[in-house]
Design the sequence.
């Protein structure tokens, strides 16, 4: 392997000093990423576990709270993210075959799709914020004479009731009276927490893709052995996408949605 | 191989020889190839990173020990000798958090794991050297948060961070400390990830899984726990932080949350974490016992698999911390039964160590004394753990000094003694210098006496009903508390002594030579201190790590240092563990 152990510009060697050959290095890099993803599964696993506990305890409240979310944006985002996973996979293939132009194009496509996801996501957060769906304990109306009949007093509960009435939550047999609107805060804590964690992971991923795009422009991937770095970044990206595949049903598809609300 | 051809095959077991002064190491090694500050701070050499961890964890151990002394001094009188109530809470929290997060978890993986896992499997470095350096700095960064939290007002939650102590009712630096735990967790994850990848991918030719030293097995099992349990702690403290910052109720019952859920998630990490702290110590014991009894380990496969067994079963027992905190009775019974199961692999280890000692040619240098202390204290610690794992007795013993004594018997008597054994065993390899035989033996005995005096009375206190974390106690408990504090002082002296004689050995110690203990492990087949890339040429391993029963591995190393023998030929290097010099 000594023959391949130099780049075209004679810079950093392809095989690092502590590896015996390129195969050992490639399989170590791959193995390291899988291990890292295992830790990520446990990391997200903790919050999924907490979500599951509360969802099981308060199914009606979670259903009602989920209804207030916007499944349309989530659907568009799912399409964008799945497509970006596809382009990431094509980038591996391009690096493996040594097609530098296609590699850069595919990395760029992945970046653009990821950024588009974040754009839609920001818009969704903005909408939620406008509707007042922020799980704070702020009191809406301190005056006891104006208390709602059921004793709701948090601003959040007030806002959520408004959104649910607007979406005609009660029309297919569900009763708003069965729902503890204050408890729906818990759902929104998980909504912001889980999507927030996912967004942080996406930002990191996009940053790494940009870095690899810069590397690709500088000819770092000209020695084909280095395709493994694209491969492990794509692995990470697939993982981030996989988390979204779980978030979509847990957060958005729990509620009652109809086409007329979209 | 002319040197080996003349060897006579002598099967008489040989003692560890008396310490002699070896010639100065002339070759360039990892310590002397460069001396600038930056060459240390930016190094990616696993050996230098191990030394940096050594300095850091020793410092934190001193601070954690001082906090412990504050607690012990305060308990001298029934109404608290020196501290206010909130100061007392902060002192024991500082002791617990520093010792667990900043010392016990990183100590052996960070120092001995970093330094010796690659050498023991014949690799040039860790699989990811830069990540290794990063994990040290992540550790340092997390430690800064911790130190700031403790210095600017302290922390009074206990090391467990249970809400509502840590959420609604705490006015101390829970957020800062929580951030510290989160960051330290990532350091632990990265170290574990690196060690797993190294063991899987970097073993030299001939180093099969069945030929790996048992220390490497232990580090592997530890790393699996680090990688699979620590992220859960990270997400748990994140949720705690979200709860505190935004005032939402994930764990707060008045806001529809559930504090028991925090306890489940916390112990899902923190119970396996005690095995992160214990397993490396067990791994060290295998290396030391075999060397100082000049025997192969009794039941290599049983010891290796019991390590994995502890790691696996350790995941399934977290509920035994919560028998009295509101979890279901039947769930408690299940956890109780699973807890009993941990005793099986632990006992396998103790029995195998005893069988290894049986009929061996024992010598009692400092590492061996610490290792024997480990076996005695860990056995007591493990057996008292069964009292606590049985639901009936736990209702009586829960949250008493019995728990404190049990925990310290396993963590200090286990891990601290294991760490000292390992440090003393490998110090000559790490530095090339031999420390004082007399002082090191004295330190081992002092620590053992001090330790027993500290914690044996606490079993009695706990059984009589003295609760943990209380600054006040009935006057009839005072005698036992005074005994315990006296023991803690002796123990403190026992821990301080190594700081002095090990440091002194760097300047005045005899040269240790490559293999002062005449051990058979691969790490002893290279120079002391090891060269930059550990071995001058790629080692090939042909037999197991503990072949003390084979003849003349002692003589072979002697022969290879014969000045008549040209330096280019390293029979011990290419045939590590194979004293016959076969290829």
Sequence:
């Amino acid at each position: 392997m000594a023959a391949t152990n130099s780049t075209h510009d004679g810079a950093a060697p392809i095989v690092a000093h502590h590896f015996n050959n390129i195969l050992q290095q490639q399989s170590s890099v791959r193995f390291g990423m899988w291990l890292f993803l295992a830790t990520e599964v446990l990391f997200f696993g903790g919050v999924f576990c907490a979500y599951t506990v509360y969802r099981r305890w308060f199914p009606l409240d979670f259903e009602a709270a989920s209804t207030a979310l916007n499944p349309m944006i989530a659907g568009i985002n799912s399409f964008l993210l799945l497509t970006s996973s596809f382009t990431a996979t094509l980038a591996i293939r391009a690096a493996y075959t040594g097609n530098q132009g296609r590699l850069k194009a595919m990395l760029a496509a992945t970046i653009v799709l990821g950024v588009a996801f974040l754009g839609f996501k920001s818009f969704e957060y903005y909408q939620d914020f406008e509707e007042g769906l922020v799980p704070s304990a702020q009191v809406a109306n301190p005056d006891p004479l104006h208390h709602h009949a059921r004793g709701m007093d948090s601003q959040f509960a007030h806002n959520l009731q408004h959104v649910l009435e607007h979406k005609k939550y009660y029309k297919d047999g569900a009763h708003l009276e069965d729902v503890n609107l204050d408890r729906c805060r818990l759902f929104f804590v998980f909504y912001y927490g889980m999507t927030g964690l996912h967004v942080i992971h996406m930002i990191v991923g996009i940053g790494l893709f940009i870095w690899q795009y810069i590397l690709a422009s500088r000819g770092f991937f000209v020695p084909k052995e280095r395709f493994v770095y694209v491969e492990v970044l794509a692995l990470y990206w697939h993982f981030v996408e996989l988390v979204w595949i779980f978030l979509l049903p847990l957060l958005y598809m729990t509620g009652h949605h109809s086409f007329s609300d979209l | 191989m002319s040197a080996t051809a003349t060897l006579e095959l002598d099967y008489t077991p040989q003692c560890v020889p008396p310490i002699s002064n070896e010639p100065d190491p002339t070759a360039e090694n990892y310590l002397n190839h460069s001396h600038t500050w930056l060459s240390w701070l930016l190094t990616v050499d696993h050996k230098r990173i191990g030394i940096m961890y050594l300095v850091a964890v020793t410092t934190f151990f001193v601070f954690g020990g001082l906090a412990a002394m504050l607690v012990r001094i305060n308990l001298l009188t029934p109404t608290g000798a020196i501290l206010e109530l909130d100061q007392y809470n902060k002192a024991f929290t500082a002791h617990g958090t520093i010792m667990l997060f900043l010392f016990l978890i990183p100590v052996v993986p960070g120092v001995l794991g970093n330094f010796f896992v690659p050498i023991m499997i014949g690799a040039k470095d860790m699989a990811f050297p830069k990540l290794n350096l990063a994990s040290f700095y992540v550790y340092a960064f997390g430690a800064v948060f911790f130190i700031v939290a403790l210095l600017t007002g302290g922390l009074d939650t206990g090391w467990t961070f249970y809400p509502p102590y840590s959420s609604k009712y705490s006015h101390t630096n829970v957020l800062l400390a929580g951030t510290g735990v989160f960051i330290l967790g990532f350091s632990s994850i990265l170290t574990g990830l690196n060690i797993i990848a190294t063991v899987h991918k970097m073993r030299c030719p001939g180093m099969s899984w069945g030929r790996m030293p048992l220390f490497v097995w232990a580090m592997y099992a530890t790393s699996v726990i680090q990688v699979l349990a620590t992220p859960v702690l990270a997400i748990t403290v994140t949720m705690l932080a979200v709860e505190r910052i935004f005032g939402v109720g994930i764990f707060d019952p008045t806001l529809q949350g559930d504090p028991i859920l925090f306890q489940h998630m916390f112990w899902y990490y923190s119970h396996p974490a005690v095995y992160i702290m214990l397993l490396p110590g067990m791994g060290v014991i295998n290396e030391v016992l075999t060397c100082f009894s000049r025997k192969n380990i009794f039941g290599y496969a049983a010891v290796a698999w019991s390590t994995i067994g502890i790691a696996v079963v350790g995941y399934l027992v977290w509920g035994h911390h919560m028998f009295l905190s509101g979890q279901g009775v039947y769930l408690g019974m299940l956890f109780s039964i699973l807890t009993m199961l941990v005793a099986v692999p632990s006992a396998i280890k103790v029995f195998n160590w005893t069988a290894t000692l049986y009929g061996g040619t024992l010598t009692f240098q400092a590492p061996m004394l610490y290792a024997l202390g480990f076996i005695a204290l860990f056995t007591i610690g493990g057996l008292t753990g069964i009292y606590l794992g049985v639901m009936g007795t736990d209702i009586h013993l829960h949250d008493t000094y019995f728990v404190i004594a049990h925990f310290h018997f396993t963590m200090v008597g286990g891990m601290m003694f294991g760490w000292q054994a390992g440090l003393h065993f490998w110090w000559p390899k790490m530095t090339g210098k031999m420390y004082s035989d007399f002082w090191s033996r004295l330190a081992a005995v002092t620590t053992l006496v001090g330790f027993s005096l500290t914690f044996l009375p606490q079993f009695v206190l706990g059984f009589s009903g003295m609760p943990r974390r209380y600054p006040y106690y009935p006057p009839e408990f005072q005698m036992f508390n005074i005994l315990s504090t006296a023991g803690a002082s002796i123990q403190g002296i026992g821990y301080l002594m190594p700081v002095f004689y090990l440091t002194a050995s760097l300047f005045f110690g005899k040269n240790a030579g490559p293999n002062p203990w005449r051990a058979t492990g691969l790490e002893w087949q290279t120079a002391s201190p090891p060269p930059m890339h550990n071995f001058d040429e790629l080692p090939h391993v042909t037999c197991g790590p503990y072949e003390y029963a084979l003849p003349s591995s002692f003589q072979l190393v002697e022969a290879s240092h014969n000045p008549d023998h040209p330096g280019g030929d390293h029979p011990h290097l290419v045939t590590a563990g194979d004293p016959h010099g076969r290829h």
